[in-house]
Specification:
single chain, alpha/beta, Glycerol-3-phosphate (1)-acyltransferase, 7 helices, 17% strand
Length: 223
């Protein structure tokens, strides 16, 4: 599969559009979106490929590799519609994030175990026509490769009948790695062609194919 580009793919979008299904405080999300857009425009110039592959409406699950804390602003600030991020529950212990998370529609999930409540929230958000961003590796890659998916992404998409858009993020590990040291430079976000998974499709096979596609878009090896 090849990512279809539009003439505007290399250009950042100037504003966040209203989404028919927004969650939390829309004003706070728009302010946060602008901060993400600004961050990935000035200190970390961003190239966006295949943005036309993201449906403007309807339930869509964005599935990306995870290498840096910059991945969320890099992906979220690349598209105009509201995106609900799936993040680890421990982030809610931070006082500022505990205030911010419910206001931008973030879904918290317990890492290292099956969190049925969070999965239900993801499925419901997709069924309601929302966009959700997941990093199925569960944590930032320690070595630059795409590690095994923890499960849940394929399950949620199949249950909700939602479209999956694989996403490959490049350059964020160099820009801001696990050490937290910043190195200003270009990052890239590659959106692959949308996929609709049949409910009868073997979940393990679908997950393996999705992981391989994400790695291909990110230009990374599989672990």
């Amino acid at each position: 599969m090849s990512a279809a580009d539009s003439p505007a793919d290399g250009q950042a979008q100037p504003r966040a559009l209203a989404d028919p299904r927004s969650y939390g405080d829309g004003i706070t999300y728009r302010i946060g979106w602008f901060v993400c857009w600004l961050t990935c425009t000035i200190p970390f110039p961003r190239r966006i490929v295949g943005r036309v592959n993201v449906p403007r409406t309807g339930g869509v699950l964005l599935v990306a590799n995870h290498a840096s804390f910059l991945d969320i602003p890099a992906v979220g600030g690349s598209i105009a519609r509201h995106v609900s991020f799936v993040a680890r529950e421990s982030l809610g212990k931070n006082r500022f994030l505990a205030w911010l998370i419910p206001r931008v529609g973030t879904i918290l999930i317990r890492r290292g175990e099956a969190d049925r409540g969070a999965l239900r929230s993801i499925v419901e958000r997709l069924q309601q026509g929302g966009a959700v961003l997941m990093f199925p590796e569960g944590t930032r890659s320690p070595d630059g490769r795409v590690h095994a998916f923890k499960g849940g992404a394929v399950y949620a998409a199949q249950r909700a009948g939602a479209t999956i858009v694989p996403v490959g993020v490049r350059g964020t590990a160099r820009a801001m790695g696990r050490s937290g040291k910043l190195r200003f430079g270009r990052i890239e976000v590659h959106f692959g062609e949308p996929l609709v998974l049949d409910r009868g499709l073997d979940r393990a096979q679908a997950e393996a194919a999705l992981r391989a596609r994400v790695a291909e878009l990110a230009g990374l090896e599989l672990a």
